[in-house]
Amino acid sequence: MNTKRNILPYTFNMFLSEETRAKTEKLILKLALFSFFIHLVIIYLIKFDFLAQPLNSELLTNPISAVYTPFSFILIYEVYLLIYYLPKSFTTYITKQYEIITLIIIRKLFKDLSTLELSANWFEIKGDLQFTYDLLASLILFYLIFLFQKQGRLKTIKATGENNVIQRFVKRKKLIAIILVPLFFSMALYTLIDWSAGLSISTSTIPSFESINNLFFDQFFTVLILVDVVLLLISFFYTDQFHKIIRNSGFVISTILIRMSFAVSGLISTILIVVAVLFGLAIIAIHNKYEKNPLPNTLNKQKAS
Predict the structure, then answer these.
(1) Which of 154, 166, 144, 158 has the alpha carbon at shortest distance from 238?
(2) Which of 22, 55, 262, 266 has its CA 20 to 30 A from that of 16?
(3) Would you call 201 exposed, middle or buried from its count of C-beta atoms within 10 A (0-12, 13-18, 19+)?
(4) Model confidence over 192-238: pLDDT tens digits?
(5) How confident is the prediction for the chain on average, in pLDDT?
(6) Cβ neighbours of residue 40 closer than 8 Å, sequence gap 6 or more
(7) What is residue 121's DSSP assignment?
(8) Cα–Cα distance between 218 and 67 in angstroms, integer?
(9) Are the C-beta atoms of 149 and 99 separated by less than 8 Å?
């Protein structure tokens, strides 16, 4: 019986302890630095005709675009941090979702910087216009995430006996986090192998930039939607307070909007992302208003954060 009880904390510490997080951070940073130099080497080998230039090689034409590759590894680390913070703080977990989609836009900006057409017809060139949209969106998202974090740090007075309820909820979130670590690792590995196989079959071309930019993360946010729904359903066991149900439901909607942004391109995709984060911010701000001014609730269960 004791062995069964120890499995959860042992597995959790193996995947998501502070020590594991620190080791993962060092490994990812080393891989990011190494990949940056490899990308640069390939670009210059193509530039000096030591390698044939593939078709659709938007990421192999300018040294600036080499930043795209280490950013991809940083995004992988952000995915790990999202899982790491899931049992610790639900709002930090949601914040990480917003940070990931913002970093995806920033990563895209580095690629777009290498292909900008500097001319008087800036607002008539589709690529330059999209760069402008993404640049403004990244600034707006950066500020919205700041406001979201600020709202998430607001504390409320905890009810007597709430700690026991929170601990039970945290245990379930730890179980979900343990499942997510190998799941996302397997998804990332499968995506890498599948993409590499596609390159080996046709070495004269590489996938379009849009497909590369959405690689892994469209499936990633699909899984996050399912996780958010599971967390929403579990939360019903610990609270029937309207504002908390709406908060959790709102976060699900926000994640769905982000996932929808991968199905479209251009300005619509950028707008969907900004609206998703803005909606999440509005949800948590209103939720905190309820927390500061609690309304009578005849069916009030213990609150679960």
Answers:
(1) 166
(2) 262
(3) exposed
(4) 777 666 555 445 555 554 556 667 888 899 999 999 999 999 888 87
(5) 83
(6) 63, 66
(7) T
(8) 21
(9) no
List residues bridging with 55 in a β-sheet.
Answer: 205
Which range, 163-167, 239-243, 248-252, has the best average confidence (pLDDT)? 248-252
Alpha-carbon span 74 to 297, nearest angstrom: 45
283 in Cβ contact with 246 (< 8 Å): yes
Q: How confident is residue 296, by pLDDT bands cut at 50, 70 and 90? A: low
What's the Rg (C-alpha) of the chain? 22
Residue with tokens 């690629």: 111
Distances (CA, A) of 104 to 64, 191, 252, 290: 16, 17, 20, 33
Q: H or E stretch including 194? A: helix 162-201
d(CA 44, CA 211): 24
pLDDT digits (tens, 9 = 90+) for 52-88: 776 556 677 788 888 888 888 899 999 999 999 999 8
**Token reading at 240:** 């029937």
Compute CA distances 243 → 53, 89, 100, 284, whole Å.
Answer: 56, 18, 26, 9
Q: Which two tokens stand for residue 102?
A: 């913002």
* Token couple for 271: 């707008």
Tell me phi and psi for residue 55, to 5 degrees: -75, 155
Residue 173 tokens, joined: 């979130």
Q: Which of 61, 82, 141 is nearest to 106 (CA)?
A: 141
Domain boundaries, the chain: 2-115+123-292
pLDDT number for residue 190: 83
DSSP category for residue 109 = H
Token pair for residue 59? Answer: 């990421």
Q: What are the tokens at 175?
A: 């179980």
* Spatial separation of the C-alpha atoms in residues 178 and 171, rounded to whole Å: 11
